[in-house]
């Protein structure tokens, strides 16, 4: 049986640490097959009850979140999108901390360790000597990062970075082992149906409240 593949994620958040009260404002998920070829993309804003933080960076306003689903409402689809896949992120520790913290707030616990990869750490092997920020690595390789600090843009760029690593891997045994481990221990789904995801485009066009200036 072929493992499902990779799920690259990116969060935009109200701060740097969930332990200090920062919350998720947006998440994107990009599916890739075992060769790193992108096969699907999803993203949504997330409504919380706190401040949005640095809107000058992530360009998310309070009004943009007015009709977005809560994390509890997007979690059923999120877990399904991650199910059986290696979870990938750039600076994965940051995104996985928020993933675990947000799931913890709705009472969800992982039954086995999350299988993950960090493209920032892998740069030491595949792009040695380079600065390891996502923007610099994308510039070096030629990946479009127009609109950075939007979850869908950063997650897609990270997925393309992963594909470059895979294409230049002489021995994929490490990747294959992680794919098999993730497929053998899929995440337990939530029984609730949740709500449809609400990407920025819907927020921009939502007629229930005026357009907002934060979106380019």
Structure in a nutshell:
Residues 5-171 form the Exonuclease domain. This protein has 216 residues and is of the alpha/beta class.
Helix content: 25-40%
- Would you tell me the structural class of the helices and strands? alpha/beta
The CATH homologous superfamily is named: Ribonuclease H-like superfamily/Ribonuclease H
Kindly report how far apart the N and C termini lie.
Answer: 44 Å
CATH architecture: 2-Layer Sandwich
Strand content: 5-15%
Runs in which pLDDT lies below 50 for 5 or more consecutive residues are 209-216
Cα radius of gyration in angstroms: 17 Å
The top-level CATH class is: Alpha Beta
What would the average pLDDT be, to the nearest integer?
92
Q: What's the helix-strand series?
A: EEEHHEHEHHHHH
Number of domains: 1
Largest sheet: 5 strands, mixed
How many strand segments? Answer: 5
Can you tell me the overall shape?
Answer: globular
CATH domain topology: Nucleotidyltransferase, domain 5
Strand order of the largest sheet: 3-2-1-4-5
Number of helices: 8
Can you describe what's shown?
- Mean pLDDT is 92; it is low at 209-216.
- The protein has one domain: Nucleotidyltransferase, domain 5, CATH 3.30.420.
- The chain has eight helices and five strands, in the order E-E-E-H-H-E-H-E-H-H-H-H-H.
- By secondary structure, the protein is of the alpha/beta class.
- Helix 4 (119-126) runs parallel beside helix 6.
- 38% of the residues are buried.
- Helices cover 38% and strands 15% of the residues.
- Strands 3-2-1-4-5 form a five-stranded mixed sheet, sandwiched between helices.
- The N and C termini lie far apart (44 Å).
- This is 3'-5' exonuclease.
- It comes from Herbiconiux daphne.
- Keywords: Exonuclease, Hydrolase, Nuclease.
């Amino acid at each position: 049986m072929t493992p499902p593949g990779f799920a690259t994620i990116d969060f935009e958040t109200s701060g740097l640490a969930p332990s200090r009260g920062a919350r998720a404002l947006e998440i994107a998920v990009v599916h890739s097959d075992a060769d790193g070829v992108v096969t699907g993309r999803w993203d949504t804003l997330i409504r919380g009850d706190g401040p949005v933080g640095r809107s000058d960076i992530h360009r998310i306003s309070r009004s943009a979140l007015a009709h977005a689903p809560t994390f509890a409402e997007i979690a059923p689809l999120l877990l399904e999108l991650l199910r059986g896949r290696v979870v990938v992120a750039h600076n994965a520790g940051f995104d996985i901390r928020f993933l675990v913290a947000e799931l913890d707030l709705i009472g969800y616990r992982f039954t086995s360790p999350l299988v993950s990869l960090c493209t920032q750490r892998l740069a030491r092997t595949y792009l040695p000597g380079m600065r390891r920020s996502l923007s610099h690595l994308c510039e070096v390789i030629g990946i479009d990062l127009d609109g950075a600090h939007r979850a869908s843009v950063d997650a897609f760029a990270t997925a393309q970075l992963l594909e470059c690593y895979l294409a230049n891997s002489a021995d994929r045994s490490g990747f294959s082992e992680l794919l098999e481990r993730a497929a053998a221990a899929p995440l337990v789904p939530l029984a609730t149906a949740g709500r449809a995801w609400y990407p920025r485009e819907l927020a921009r066009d939502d007629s229930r409240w005026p357009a907002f200036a934060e979106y380019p």
